[in-house]
Amino acid sequence: MSVKSGRAVRLGMAAKSALIVAGLCMLAAMAFAFSQAGSDRRLITPTDPGVRGGGPGAGQALSGLSSTQTQTFTAGQTNFTTPFVVPDPANSTTGGLGPVFNSNSCSSCHAQPAAGGDTPDDLPGASGTNELFSVYQLDGATNTMPSFETTNGPELVARFPWMLNNPTVPDGSVHQLFTVTGRSDATGCNLAQPNFSQAQSDNDLVFRRPIETFGDGLIEIVENGVITAQATAECSNQAQTGVCGTVSVDPHNGDVNRLGWKGQWRGLMTAAAEELNTEMGVTNEWFPTEINQTQGCVFNPVPESGTNFIPTIEFYDFTGDPERMTVFMSFLAPPIPANFSQAALQGQTEFNTIGCTNCHQVSYTTPAMSSMGTFMESKTINLYSDLLLHHMGNCLADNIVQGSAQGDMWRTPPLWGAGKRAFFMHDGRTSNLITAIEDHVWNSTVGTTCGGSYAASEATDSVSAYNALSSQLQQDVLDFIRDL
Ligand code: HEC
Ligand code: HEC
Predict the structure, then answer these.
(1) No. of helices (H) and no. of strands (E), the chain
(2) Are the C-beta atoms of residues 261 and 270 closer than 8 Å to each other?
(3) Are strands 206-208 and 157-159 parallel, antiparallel or unpaired?
């Protein structure tokens, strides 16, 4: 579907230049337009309906698991939700935290609306909290909380695009927020936190928020060729749509990577093992070395989580934490959408017409045969993502090159479950769906484009077409997304 031809985009361009000329913020431009729906021509201002409460939700297992699969799912859920401590006695599944870490359990960051999910809904009035505040000084730890973590904000993981004090040399890696210094189970360790305030004043600090893992077991088995074919199809329409997704290719074997904000991970096992090491500092068979090896702060033999060779325990306890956590995540069912309201159905049509589906591709289908069981076979999954990388412009760029992703590229995030998300975009910059849409192209909060030399966002035409919709139809799009 071409969004360049036709009325939508001509109006879109007009709306956009009017905005820039007048220097008005996006909301003002959209406000108080007359509704075209209904006979009463109501005056409406499009509003994000907010986090959808009540059921249906997410967090349950796929239906069709065998009883041993259900047992393994439940055991893995325990690993995913149990807090880790520093000491690691033999066969412990909860030892190995630190020396540096961001939090002490997977579910402290992956919790919304259930274990496995997104960063908790801790917006004013919600019941959640930014869990990092209950972790950073736990057991006597002497950490201070970096200013970018707030009690009502998303849980953010920090990266430095450049080496601290050396802004021409790329860094790009995660810098853990906390150390075990001062904890009663880490006596003798003396290790300072990274200097986040210096990084912030050097403009050398970027953030990422957690990504929910519901339905990821189905996403990871979509065949490589299905995703590359989608990229080919997109790029052959580029002249009409401005959209041409890039496949995130594993340089070792050509496999198609697909998880993470930059599409950096092939599947759940790699992600879990790396997350265990990066977020919690727990060494494992995939990442067997401590990230930080400061003398006096390394307390355990490595790997801290590994294959358990004691044959008297249950079979599903044999493997290490990454494996158990992976089984839990890969059996998590996709989020269940609400029954679409009339408005949401209209919004779904518009979402397609204005070209959101050029990237937020409605569905993929899993392979015809799975050794896990028929419950994973030939499933059409409505994830609303092409799992491809896109150039998203200066306002979203984080200047980090990661695998196939350039400094301005992001993987289209799946929108299934978006109805229950409290924060949007890779850095959790907003809890407002309207800002999330406008920010595909420019920084809508301050109403400007951003400095930098990256190409224009591939979403430019589609956001222009969104802005050209009547305020009633914009509302329908918002209602649709909040029903997902
Ligand atoms: C401090 C917060 C935090 C903790 C703790 C944490 N994560 Fe994450 N998780 C993140 C962030 C941030 C991302 C996005 C990473 C990126 O793409 O750079 C993420 C992404 C993921 C993804 C990718 C999901 C997708 O669909 O793309 C998986 C899987 C995951 N985490 C699993 C885990 C597991 C397993 C644990 C526990 C061992 C864990 N995480 C602990 C913050 C956290
Ligand atoms: C060129 C591809 C592309 C198009 C077209 C596109 N998006 Fe996106 N969308 C993305 C990417 C990439 C992100 C993540 C960007 C980031 O976080 O920096 C995103 C993020 C989002 C998010 C936030 C999801 C989250 O969990 O943070 C929403 C909501 C969304 N898009 C809705 C839309 C709507 C509505 C349209 C149509 C007006 C649209 N998108 C068009 C690629 C696209």
Answers:
(1) 15, 14
(2) no
(3) antiparallel
Q: What is the pLDDT of residue 24?
A: 40
- Decide: helix, strand or coil at residue 448: strand
Distances (CA, A) of 71 to 329, 347, 354, 458: 13, 40, 45, 44
Whose alpha carbon is nearest atom 19 of ligand 1? 210
Residue 6 has pLDDT above 60, yes or no: no
Q: What's the gap between Cα 105 and its chain centre? A: 17
271 close to ligand 1 (CB < 6 Angstrom): yes
- Ligand 1 centre to CA of 211 (Å) is 6
3-state secondary structure of 72: helix
17-71 per-position pLDDT tens digit = 444 434 444 433 343 333 344 433 456 899 999 999 988 889 999 999 999 999 9
Q: Please calculate the CA angle 30-33-39 and round it to the nearest 5 degrees.
A: 145
CA–CA separation, 411 and 421 (whole Å):
18
For ligand 1, say whether the CB of 106 is within 6 Å of any of its atoms. Answer: yes
pLDDT single digits (tens) 111-130: 999 999 999 999 999 988 99
Spatial contact of 214 and 116, defined as CB atoms under 8 Å apart: yes
Q: Which atom in ligand 1 lies closest to the alpha carbon of residue 157?
A: 12
**Nearest residue CA, atom 13 of ligand 1?**
210
Structure tokens at 356: 């959101």
Cβ of 258 closer than 6 Å to ligand 1, yes or no, is no
For ligand 2, is residue 433 a contact (CB within 6 Å)?
yes
Tokens 């918002």: give the residue.
478
